[in-house]
Amino acid sequence: MLFAGHAQTAAQHKVGPQVLDYHLVHTVVSGRGNFRCLHRDYRLERGSSFFIFPGELVTYVSDASEPWAYRWVGFKGERADEFLSKAGISPHKPVISSERLRRLTALYYQLEKTLHLAKPGCDMQAGGYLRLLLGEYAQDGMRDEVPKEEGSVIQQQVEQAIRWLTLQYYQPISIEQMARTLGYHRTHLSKMFKQHTGLSPMQFLLKIRMERAKLLLQGPLTIEQVASSVGFGDALYFSKQFKKYCGHSPSEYRHDQQVNPYDCGG
C-alpha cells in the first residue's frame, strides 16, 4: 500500500500525460470523464474503474459539464500484475464496471481511513482492505468470462503447480507428492509442465532453490544453513548442485558478491 484518497474534480481537470512506477486505480463515484491508455480512449461514468500500470503512458480528464468525483488507491508489489490478471485486468483491458459501487466505496473509505489514522499495524490492515477490493474487481471481471478452452485449463494447471513449487521449495518434494497434492496424474502433469515451461518440474524446482540460495548467500547464514533453507539436507550435495548450476561453489559465489555486490550472478 502506498496511499489512498478521494476528490471531486473541477470541470476538465486533466492529469497527464504521465508515466508512473506503481499501480494506481480510480473508481468513479459520480460524474463522467475520459481515460486514455495505449492509444485508446475510454469514456467512463459512475461505477467505472480504471487501472494505471507501471510504465504505461496515460492521460485522464473530467467531463466539462459533469466532472467526475472518484476515489483512488496506489500500490506496489511483485504479485500485483498477477492479482489484476486474475480479475481480467491488464494494460490492454484497464477498465472495469461494477454494479456494487456501494461496496467498493465502503472499502475505499475504510482503506483511506486506516492509512490516515496510522495506528500500529495499519499497513497490514490496509493491505487486507486492498485484497478485498481486488477481490470485488475479480468478481466483476470474471462475471462475463466464457468457459475456458482446453489450453487455458492446462495453463491453469501448470500455473498452480508453479505456485505450489514456489511455496514448498524448502520441503522434500517429489513429482508423485506434487501430483497427488494437486490432484493430477503424474505423467500428465510432468508432460504439460515441460511443454509450457521448457523444464521438468524437478528442473524448475532446482532453479527456484538455486536462485533463492543466491540471495541467502549474500547474507550471514552459513553454507549449511543456506542448504537447509532451500531444501537440501546434505550441504555437500547442495554445494555440488550449486556449482553445477552457477559455475561457482557457494563459497566462491559469496566471495564474488562481497567483492562486487552489484553483480547479480546471472
From TrEMBL:
<dbReference type="InterPro" id="IPR018060">
    <property type="entry name" value="HTH_AraC"/>
</dbReference>
<dbReference type="InterPro" id="IPR009057">
    <property type="entry name" value="Homeodomain-like_sf"/>
</dbReference>
<keyword id="KW-0804">Transcription</keyword>
<dbReference type="InterPro" id="IPR003313">
    <property type="entry name" value="AraC-bd"/>
</dbReference>
<dbReference type="Pfam" id="PF02311">
    <property type="entry name" value="AraC_binding"/>
</dbReference>
<feature type="domain" description="HTH araC/xylS-type">
    <location>
        <begin position="159"/>
        <end position="256"/>
    </location>
</feature>
<dbReference type="InterPro" id="IPR037923">
    <property type="entry name" value="HTH-like"/>
</dbReference>
<dbReference type="InterPro" id="IPR020449">
    <property type="entry name" value="Tscrpt_reg_AraC-type_HTH"/>
</dbReference>
<keyword id="KW-0805">Transcription regulation</keyword>
<protein>
    <submittedName>
        <fullName>Helix-turn-helix domain-containing protein</fullName>
    </submittedName>
</protein>
<dbReference type="Pfam" id="PF12833">
    <property type="entry name" value="HTH_18"/>
</dbReference>
<keyword id="KW-0238">DNA-binding</keyword>
<dbReference type="InterPro" id="IPR018062">
    <property type="entry name" value="HTH_AraC-typ_CS"/>
</dbReference>
